[in-house]
Write a structure and sequence with these properties.
It holds the Pfam family HAD. The protein is α/β, with parallel strands linked by helices. It is 43% helix and 16% strand.
């Protein structure tokens, strides 16, 4: 398996379970991109309209999200300050992180958000050690054409992870793991809440979808099996049972569609 770990870093410790997760609105209690759009961008109504268009299939996520981020002209450092004051971590995520570290369950964050924000806030909440333990695959930030730097008014833009209609097609990170032969393939789990998670929703053995959010609406319409959660205490309990062999992923999703 040695050569595979170069391309599939979550295999490095030969885990039996890998936990993929969204960041905004899943690990955090609020979505940082929505918060910026609603408060210093074009507002709640246009943001919700964009999300609905993505759910309906009339717009690509990439276009809707680009429009959201382009509406935010606040310098990037001030965006970070604003988010630091208003975004909070799920109250049980740190306990979940510590359990996963103890049980050799890699956590891989697949985010439509921006890497500097994710890294900075996780470091504040979990410490430097977590940055070594958690893999982050996300979009990034770049200087807007004609501007001198990201920390000036209108100076930054989102830089998408890939060329897909999602901007970051999360399925591309998961599929090499799901394609592993029997005996080498870990159990794959995913947690998410919204329209940025649609590309990942069908790719793992079990999907945790946050109660009352857009991902649940989409899964119900598309008949995709899932189990709901309100916070990471519920995910922790389920993952403990799966890791101990006391619960199958199929049974975990039964009756929770």
């Amino acid at each position: 398996m040695g050569s595979q770990t170069n391309h599939l870093p979550a295999l490095a410790t030969s885990p039996k379970v890998i936990f993929f997760t969204d960041y905004d609105g899943t690990i955090t209690q609020q979505d940082s991109n929505d918060f910026l759009t609603d408060n210093v961008g074009f507002g709640v109504d246009l943001r919700r309209k964009g999300n609905q268009d993505v759910l309906d299939g009339s717009r690509d996520f990439r276009d809707a999200f680009q429009e959201m981020m382009d509406s935010v002209s606040l310098p990037f450092d001030r965006c970070v300050d604003l988010l630091s004051e208003n975004i909070t971590l799920d109250p049980y995520f740190k306990e979940f992180f510590l359990f996963c570290r103890e049980e050799n369950i890699p956590i891989v964050i697949l985010s439509g958000g921006m890497r500097p924000i994710i890294k900075g806030m996780l470091r504040t909440w979990l410490g430097d050690e977590a940055m070594e333990a958690i893999q982050i695959v996300s979009n990034d930030v770049a200087v807007r054409d004609g501007k001198g730097g990201i920390h000036e008014e209108g100076g930054w833009r989102i830089e998408f992870h890939d060329e897909s209609v999602f901007g970051h097609d999360k399925s591309r990170e998961i599929r090499p793991y799901s394609a592993l032969p029997e005996g080498e393939r870990p159990i794959l789990l995913y947690a998410g809440d919204g329209v940025s998670d649609l590309s990942a929703a069908k790719e793992t053995d079990l999907l945790f979808a946050k109660k009352g959010r857009d991902l649940v609406t989409w899964c119900e319409r598309e008949n995709v099996p899932f189990t709901t959660f309100e916070d990471f205490s519920e995910i922790l309990e389920t993952v403990k049972h799966i890791a101990a062999g006391k619960l199958s992923v199929k049974d975990a999703a039964t009756g929770r569609k």
